Amino acid sequence: GLTTWNDEQEDVATELLATLAEEVKTGLVKTPKRLSSRFFYDAQGSRLFQEIMRSPDYYLTRSEYEILDTYKSELLRHFTENDSQAFDLVELGAGDGLKTKILLRYFVEQQARFAYAPVDISADALDELVGDVNRQFPDLSLKPQHDDYFHSLQQLASESDTRRVILFLGSNIGNFTPDEAVDFYQQLSDRLQPGELVLTGFDLQKHPAVIHTAYNDRDGLTKAFNLNLLRRINRELGADFDLAAFDHYESYNPENGEARSYLVSQKSQTVQIGALAMTVPFQAGEIIHTEISRKFTRTQIEQLAEKTGFVVTGWFTDSKGYFADVVFRK
Ligand code: AVI
Predict the structure, then answer these.
(1) Would you call 194 helix, strand, or coil by DSSP?
(2) Measured from the CA of 172, which atom of ligand 1 is nearest?
(3) Are 196 and 163 in contact (CB under 8 A)?
(4) Where are the alpha helices (DSSP H) in the chain?
(5) How far apart are CA 256 and CA 238, in angstroms?
(6) Centre of ligand 1 from the C-alpha of residue 293, in Å
């Protein structure tokens, strides 16, 4: 019933607050300081990310949108094994589901037999998505889950009556370290049965200037998104970060395909974190590393599949060759 669901939501929220506290406690005493981008997505962070996805400089979303729109019928053939098989579409990090709705609409039109199971770390984004999908596709069966990827992976049963297709879109995979990425597919591989699929959106290596611009957008949305992490820590952990005293800096290294986000202290200052009884000193110009957004080569993607027990059975790119949606089959 409703009470149980609310209780569960509260448990998840309490757990997320505890992980944020732990992250801040350990991350801000490291040299260099660091905080994980997984904490970007509170209500405001999710909204800012939606704005980033509409920015003309953030090409990733448009590229993937083009791919899904162009290849939706081919993707459905992959998902149903050419045989109108029923499947559960499990989307990790669904967000506002803007791109996924292209697939949902087409699959519903084609009367595919499937249920949609979105998973997201942001309760607000998930609530919105569920409301939206219910309105647009009233007959589609929905199984939402408020959780982070790793936890939801652990909940993924190793056996299922319904064939599962896992969606991991938007280059979310790029926010993992190489080791985390291997670990992620290994966990999937361990839980999926032969014939089950993972469709992942990978941002590809390209002219470094294009990538650099995507993370240094003209409207300062990426800057606001990055700084919002400090606002969240102020609110949830009673800290007193002065947002005006920090700047956003993003570098892209074309040698290893890593875009990295930093917050930069604009002056020598001290920050109090009330809930942790912690005082954090910053020197002028000192950074907090907040995010990695990795860009891939085709070879790296194929090696990732091979290493973790998958076979690449589908490779779809946009007309510019900026982005790839790739089918891994267990
Ligand atoms: C969610 N993730 C794939 C985005 C990215 O591109 O790494 C988050 C983001 N960070 C800055 N802009 C967008």
Answers:
(1) coil
(2) 3
(3) yes
(4) 2-27, 43-54, 59-70, 72-79, 100-109, 123-136, 149-155, 178-191, 208-214, 221-237, 298-307
(5) 37
(6) 6
- The amino acid at 117: A
Query: In which residue are the tokens 């405001």 written?
Result: 44
Report the complex ipTM: 0.99
Q: Is 97 left (phi over 0), alpha (psi -120 to 50) or beta?
A: left
Q: Are 24 and 276 in contact (CB under 8 A)?
A: yes
Q: What's the pLDDT at 1?
A: 43
CA-wise closest residue to 168 among 179, 190, 153: 153
More confident call, 84 vs 179: 179
Residue with the nearest Cα to atom 3 of ligand 1?
Answer: 172
Q: With 0-12 CB in 10 A as exposed, 13-18 as middle and 19+ as buried, what is 203? A: buried
> Tell me, what DSSP letter sits at residue 204?
B
Identify the residues whose C-beta falls under 6 Å from ligand 1.
52, 60, 170-172, 174-175, 215, 222, 225, 291, 293
Strand-pair partners of 145: 119
Q: Which residues pair with 255 in a beta bridge?
A: none
**CA-to-CA distance for 265 and 246, rounded, in angstroms?**
5
**H-helix or E-strand spanning residue 142:** strand 141-142
Name the residue of 38, 221, 293 whose CB sits within 8 Å of the most ligand 1 atoms, as the mutation to test its pocket: 293
Under a CB-based contact definition with an 8 Å cutoff, are residues 114 and 167 in contact? no
pLDDT at 2 over 60: no
